[in-house]
Specification:
The protein is about 75% helix and about 0% strand. The chain is an all-alpha fold. The chain contains six helices and no strands.
């Protein structure tokens, strides 16, 4: 019985090793396809077709890159990537961007501490449907924005 179990475990490990290259190739293929879609959409945007779609793709890419920079603790890079979307008011991706920018301002990470700006960004993110911002603001229902920080 022990040898049979051990054999099954070894077979599972071998299968994982065999599947590693195809998994990498599939991930790489997905990345290449997403870049092709981005280049086609944004290439058309230069001649006036699908500008909004290109902008949304750019914002999604920036959100991913900025989020990864935030998670690494590289807050200056995060701000640099996300700050061009400060004035955006379109969809949930922009809500996520505003939420992350709000976190930067709230904690003074990579930017000067500015809780008023942070609160404004959290409110904008919540209006755009970003759930984490809505949860943050729900803590302060019925209180003034000055009370958020005490």
């Amino acid at each position: 019985m022990y040898n049979e179990t051990r054999g099954l475990v070894n077979k599972a490990i071998m299968f994982e090793k065999i599947m590693e290259p195809p998994r990498y190739l599939l991930n790489r293929f997905g990345y290449v396809i997403s870049r092709i879609v981005y280049l086609i959409a944004c290439g058309q945007a230069r001649i006036g077709i699908s500008k909004e779609f290109c902008y949304t793709l750019s914002a999604s890419k920036a959100f991913g890159e900025g989020g990864r920079a935030y998670e690494r603790g590289d807050y200056e890079v995060c701000y640099e990537i996300l700050s061009p979307y400060l004035a955006a008011e379109q969809d949930g991706v922009h809500g996520g961007i505003k939420y992350h920018l709000g976190l930067l301002f709230f904690y003074g990470r990579g930017v000067t501490l500015n809780r008023g700006q942070a609160n404004k960004l959290f409110e904008e993110a919540a209006l755009l449907g970003w759930e984490q911002a809505q949860q943050y603001l729900s803590q302060f229902k019925g209180r003034s924005s000055e009370e958020h920080y005490n």
